[in-house]
Amino acid sequence: MGRARPGERGPPSPGPAAPPAPPTHRARALALLGALLAAAAAAAAARAYARHTEAQAAARQESALKALGTEGLFLFSSLDTDRDMYISPEEFRPISEKLTGSTPTASYEEEELPPDPSEETLTIEARFQPLLPESMTKSKDGFLGVSRLALSGLRNWMTAASPSATFAARHFRPFLPPRGQVELGEPWWIIPSELSVFTGYLSNNRFYPPPPKGKEVIIHQLLSMFHPRPFVKTRFAPQGAVACLTAISDFYYTVMFRIHAEFQLSEPPDFPFWFSPGQFTGHIILSKDATHVRDFRLFVPNHRSLNVDMEWLYGASESSNMEVDIGYIPQMELEATGPSIPSVILDEDGNMIDSRLPSGEPLQFVFEEIKWQQELSWEEAARRLEVAMYPFKKVTYLPFTEAFDQAKAKNKLVHSILLWGALDDQSC
């Protein structure tokens, strides 16, 4: 290229590079289409995998049905708690313990703690009167195909499994309020409910409760005094245990609680039979550090004419072979025989003292009188726990005759509800 002549302009010098042109609408549309196609392919692959998994499960179930038969598959399913069509060693444990006659070996957190010779213990007694057969309205012998075999677990349950048991005071620590929650009548959950009216319910086809964990342990141990197969969490909502403070002093709390739990009265080869009390309620008076328990009582309320729900299977199908009835149990109660006392008595020098006098009589402990600074009535505490379990109880429900007086005074209509059982406990 030659030089420019005088008076002529040379070629322009190269300037900075121009920015890239923005993507066109077409390019953006192609990118979006590609992303949608990729998402659709991933969703299709996920659906295909799910169908493949379901087909495998169906094939395993069909194979098991051919090998075991309907009743055998029913028993297998009751042990297969995770529904993976395999019985793991943990799932087989209840059958193994039953065949060998061994007792369950628990690895609960509380039991792993080494015993403290100076800690206090208390004795709890169980009082049990069996369900009154005449209170069952539907399940008379021969009625609706009900047989004595179907009710055998109920008929054979005549006494408490453990009339008496001893516990360390520290085992009741789960009844203490959460840190920072010292408001009278403010409910908290000892065992939260994992179900609601929207999440359905747990399978009826089970015989053995899952191992309790954490705060479930003490409640499981207490309920085991009645029957060896308590389920700390019921099949239906609301589950769990709720509590609130009813009295506070410098060193003690009074805690009221409400527990929804149930029992499985049958074992293989019989079909499951569920026994669901309307509720367990009660109170505990314990020191704020749970080293001393002054009083404890747990019971099924018996002021209503029906207080237990019973459901049982009479065939391998959960949906079509279920029978249900309601009945009345006069007494189902646990109570401490007295305050907790030291297991070992030491003098000022740390030497052990004989717990009996020279006459042979046991030493008598004198307990200080508790001076309560704040108190809440039993009725109000029970109402608040009831609302925690059943939020619809925020609305005031009245007896039949009182409702009309209120309706007339307020010029409102009456909404009447007629039930076989009680709407605000587990017996309905």
UniProtKB/TrEMBL annotation:
GO terms for cellular component: endoplasmic reticulum membrane. GO terms for biological process: calcium ion homeostasis; skeletal muscle fiber development. InterPro entries: EF_hand_dom. Residues 108-119 have a biased composition (Acidic residues). Residues 1-26, 90-119 are annotated as: Disordered. Residues 9-23 have a biased composition (Pro residues). Residues 75-102 form the EF-hand domain. One of its GO terms (molecular function) is calcium ion binding. This is Selenoprotein N. It comes from Rousettus aegyptiacus (Egyptian fruit bat).
